[in-house]
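Quick question: what would this complex look like in 3D?
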Amino acid sequence: MAKENQFVNQIADIETDFPRWYTDVVIKTKLVDYGPVKGTMVIRPYGYAIWENIQRELDARIKATGHQNAYFPLLIPYSYMTREAEHVEGFAPEVAVVTVGGGETLAEPLVIRPTSETIFGEMYSKWLQSYRDLPILINQWANVMRWEKTTRPFLRTSEFLWQEGHTAHATEEEAMEETMKMLGVYKEFAETCLAIPVFTGKKTEKEKFAGALATFGMEAMMHDGKSLQAGTSHYMGQNFAKAFDIQFLDKDGTHKYAYTTSWGVSTRLIGALIMAHGDQRGLVLPPVVAPVQAIIVPIAAKKEGVLEAAAELKAKLTAAGVRADCDTSDNSPGWKFNEWEMKGVPVRIELGPRDIEAGKMVLVRRDTHEKTEAPLAAAAEAVQTLLADVQKNLLERARKRKEERVVTAESVEELLKGVEAGNFVKAGWCGCRECEDKIKEQTAASARVIVEEEHADKCCCCGKEAKHVVLFARAY
Amino acid sequence: MAKENQFVNQIADIETDFPRWYTDVVIKTKLVDYGPVKGTMVIRPYGYAIWENIQRELDARIKATGHQNAYFPLLIPYSYMTREAEHVEGFAPEVAVVTVGGGETLAEPLVIRPTSETIFGEMYSKWLQSYRDLPILINQWANVMRWEKTTRPFLRTSEFLWQEGHTAHATEEEAMEETMKMLGVYKEFAETCLAIPVFTGKKTEKEKFAGALATFGMEAMMHDGKSLQAGTSHYMGQNFAKAFDIQFLDKDGTHKYAYTTSWGVSTRLIGALIMAHGDQRGLVLPPVVAPVQAIIVPIAAKKEGVLEAAAELKAKLTAAGVRADCDTSDNSPGWKFNEWEMKGVPVRIELGPRDIEAGKMVLVRRDTHEKTEAPLAAAAEAVQTLLADVQKNLLERARKRKEERVVTAESVEELLKGVEAGNFVKAGWCGCRECEDKIKEQTAASARVIVEEEHADKCCCCGKEAKHVVLFARAY
């Protein structure tokens, strides 16, 4: 077996066994490992570095839109969960419960936050006095826990990391504006940083957040044509304000309930990255969030001056703001090429004695495998230009797929055919839960978002008048 | 009552009721609030921004010394705790235990991490194969939980935020070098960023981490002469390697146990900042970690051009990298002065019509209340110079206290007198636990660190030959 193929053979075929490909890639590239407790994951340094880059980029956007970070407690009194009827119904079955603390059985059991609307609600009720205190715009980066039956690293784990924004406003309009603003922030972030174009829209009643009046989601198309819910923004109306008594004294001298929102994205985004861009050789990481953007592989490293030149190049790139590294291990260049390809590094730089003599370097981009040369004297510019181009190309590639793989259906049979061929399917829907359930049952596809700007005559399921066009897909 | 004194009167007297002063300050400046579950805290935006600044500064240092971040699971199987005998004895009594997940009683109870040596150990055992994999240098930023009976915001809470580094090495020497290196990183960080000079040294057996061979700590002197343990670095020897089977194949072809370390600092550091620098008017924050470094207070804000000039000044300072803000609220200038003083902002800038006309601004530094003027044309330089000077002065002031308030004692009576007068006390100690316990009982002071470079003839307690000089203090 040719050395170059050893790595590829370690990874299951991406076209015929995508779930196995995913598991192979996340474990072999050391993004993640399984934790000792079922359903938990250890995010290893290579995976966590992606999360740090996601955090840095998204945190800057959250702050630029006027939000501040804070930290609320992990443990929530069980009774809080029950104050909002839909909320407890949705989350109570999947909470982890602390019943013993400091060697004693607790008077009231405590849940590990599955989400924090209730504890934010309790504190906002305490802090909010007058309309002058509004809006309250707080975000937190935290771990949360939901006891899941079927788990997969990043996609669905009992514990995961996320950010959750919780805001309170004086009016319905302002709260709805906030809900849509943050959905927009997520969309721009996904496209700019993750190179993932998304469908955004309102969720159906069945798919909305437990306790929200309306949930808006962003959905990303994966390599296999399935959808991944990559972020959500919820408009709560006064549901939580009434449950937690979040009132304020308005300008007109009367007390009113606030309108609240919440919105979040999680370490799921790492799963989205992997499944949106990966190929048979492994990960393909967008430069904006790649832990290593350029990997230098010295050729004939034992020859005089090669390692020195590689180190100098690394220093030059690092100084220019490129996340560069140099592989000085004992492995062969061929082995290194494959390993760094598997790890998805956007640009590989090959540097050997002849290159150094000629004052140049060889650049290989991960997305197209295209090989070019560039002068060492202009190394930083050349690499930065190439990184920008890789980022752009990944987005374009993903956008092309997103546009090409959407079909329409007039019947449930057509819908089934569409999703089986790896598409998202637009179809008319009457708006009733029965049809939504029936479609799910017969096609394994669910309503991802309502498509506001389009119109259909009939429901693809019951044939009655269509209320909405809905984007259906099988989903993670 | 003069308006200026209203705020001061809201805060208990710092000299006569320091504990109450502390509570008043942390609550009134909105650093923190009490969570609904006893012993928990909500870190509010103003407090969390300090933590973000601490994280940014310390994280850069942790990475510069070769460590990578990762994230390990919150929940640890109860049985892991019991594998290291001292460890379980130390931590089992204060853990929170999850017994129910997803509606079912768990087969094995899970503890919320009080610290993560055990779960890191388990994973390191799995990952470590050969000497080539060493050292493993991983850090995580996470929440941890210890069920405490008596709690105070930042100083001792059941849940807190921290970083915990866990490393594995091939030899005793390397592991010990790592232990001391990270203690050094903490000390430099505390002095440079928090303006808190610290005593560092080895802990006695009684005070060391449960499961460590040796613990090294840094101790900071607070306003009241009590000590606060601000960070620790532990040398584990092969204790955890044996308990979790962390072995590697060495160059000589034999399997060996690794040597491990761990080290951490927490949100306690925010408590240290408050108690080291605060004064009767409230917080005094070192510029490096202050959320707002310069607050602009417009004078006669309704006069034409004042708010515009203030906004322009804010933009100029922000562009120069100063964390500047402008108070445009309806409150009076006097009210604003007091509020921002209480919040500890290092530099206040007063800007009124006459200042603008004269092309200048008034600067008031928080540490000395000294008032100066500077030209608006050179605003950024003037503010940056002043901030650097405030940072320097806070460190010098704290250093002076740290040097002046250390006395020596030859007897337990002298030791008691020393700590009652608000000092740290150096005294000879025979090395036995009985004397250490007796000193604690009679003086309420504990052994903070062993002073390596000094010598005493006799133990202050039993009069037998002294083994060490120990720095004693009452501690938080």
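Answer marked as accepted. The radius of gyration of chain A is 25 Å.
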